[in-house]
Design goal:
Radius of gyration: 20 Å
CATH topology: Methylamine Dehydrogenase, Chain H
Shape: globular
Number of helices: 4
Strand content: 35-45%
CATH superfamily: YVTN repeat-like/Quinoprotein amine dehydrogenase
Structural class: mainly beta
């Protein structure tokens, strides 16, 4: 088994009141909707998509129960065409190779994020190395549409609650594009901080939050060199007009909370069901913080255990991550944390911030919630599998083999009788 390396959400009245209270002192990761406890036997079939970044495939697995693998989809059917295009353009080639040697850790990044259409007819995929977003017909495996992002790399996405719009971060152009999920037509875009990363729709799709993480591929990782990482901030926009509503500079909030030692690069996030609290991870930190949206301040911090086998040399941590991946159960009382560089995952009680058992996992990269809301599902990028952990007990319940370097895991849909287009 290869030794992989990794890197690297309904009411919002209080937040809106805050946003409209006046300009910020600064200038300028959706959790999936909770599914019903019982899956319908009619219409599209609920599944989970697992993006195998280095393979260029997406595994489709059961969204609950034993999480068994259903099939596999090739998300780079146009690979030869894209590579030819890249090799004929010296600038594109430079960036392509830069992605490979930087965030790709020596591998091409063929799938970062994916969301299916509500009817389960297509899946939309961001492909970092190809700097694009594509819609793939789930029945035929063919590309419906392709949207080249601005700049030279695509990254995290988010889908609106109604499933009609998809937002994608263009990480080298500091831009988020919002597309019609059926046609790929751009509906709008907005500027972000440096290296936009996580995107989250809130208030039923009225607002869109983007978290920028700055430069994470340099070796300038000592705390005193944090200023070299760029302009990192949370940008909140109106999801219809794309006008900026609020900018949140976590540097100011962290300093006010007494944690000048922590990076302000916001990584994965999780909102409480009422969206009053935001939990977030930051670069280099084995833990997470709690942010109260209405009062616009950090209220608590949780430091999680370190693995004694993990090097303290920050330059050895993939893309400035220590912990990368978090989700919250539908009830809003448990958080699931992926302790990436510390090789474990754990369920944390939100009231007490007490962690449960540390579940051994090989560089867990992402955490999401099962279709029935009972389990946290993590991607183990170091062992090419996904693992389900019971929210109630904090114990592992299942592991399923998937493709090379699984990263994002998202709930989605396929046709009730879906099978892999290529029989994979």
């Amino acid at each position: 088994m290869p030794a992989h390396r990794t890197r690297h959400v309904c009411t919002m009245a209080a937040a809106l009141a805050l946003a409209l209270a006046g300009p910020s002192t600064a200038t300028a990761a959706p959790t999936a909707p909770a599914a019903s406890a019982q899956q319908s036997t009619e219409g599209p079939r609920e599944v989970m998509f697992v993006g195998n970044n280095w393979d260029g495939t997406a595994d489709v697995i059961e969204s609950r129960g034993d999480f068994a693998r259903i099939g596999r989809l090739d998300v780079i059917p146009d690979k030869d065409e894209r590579l030819k295009e890249i090799h004929l353009d010296p600038i594109k080639l430079i960036y392509f190779l830069g992605v490979r040697q930087g965030p790709g850790e020596g591998h091409d990044q063929f799938v970062d994020d994916m969301y299916s259409t509500p009817d389960g007819s297509a899946v939309v995929v961001s492909r970092p190395s190809f700097a694009d977003v594509v819609s793939i017909d789930l029945a035929t495996g063919r590309i419906n549409w392709r949207f080249p992002v601005s700049g030279y790399r695509s990254d995290h996405m988010a889908v609106s609650p109604d499933g009609t719009r998809v937002a994608v971060s263009a990480s080298t152009s500091n831009t988020v594009h919002v597309l019609d999920i059926d046609t790929g037509k751009q509906l709008g875009s907005f500027a972000t901080g440096d290296k936009p990363h996580e995107n989250v729709f809130t208030d039923g799709g009225k607002y869109l939050w983007n978290m920028s993480i700055g430069e994470v591929t340099t070796a300038l990782d000592e705390p005193w060199l944090d200023w070299t990482k760029g302009d990192r901030r949370i940008t909140v926009v109106d999801a219809d007009t794309f006008a900026q509503v609020k900018v949140i500079d976590m540097r100011e909030r962290l300093d006010a909370f007494g944690r000048k030692d922590l990076s302000d690069a916001v990584r994965p996030v999780a909102f409480t069901p009422d969206e009053s609290k935001l939990y977030f991870q930051v670069s280099f930190f084995n833990g997470f913080l709690e942010y109260d949206v209405a009062s616009d301040r950090i209220t608590r911090v949780k430091t999680l255990p370190k693995n004694p086998a993990t090097s303290e040399d920050r330059t050895t941590w993939v893309n400035d991550s220590r912990h990368h991946g978090m989700s919250m159960n539908p009830q809003g009382d448990k958080l699931c944390i992926a302790g990436t560089m510390d090789d474990y995952a754990t369920v944390v009680d939100r009231a007490t911030l007490q962690e449960g058992p540390l579940v051994t996992a090989s560089k867990p990269y992402w955490a999401t919630v099962s279709g029935d809301g009972k389990s946290c599902v993590i991607s183990e990028s170091g062992s090419d599998q996904v693992t389900a952990i019971d929210f109630a007990t904090g114990r592992k319940v299942a592991s399923v083999p998937v493709g090379d370097h699984p990263q994002r895991v998202r709930l989605g849909h396929v046709a009730a009788d879906w099978t892999s287009p290529s029989g994979g």
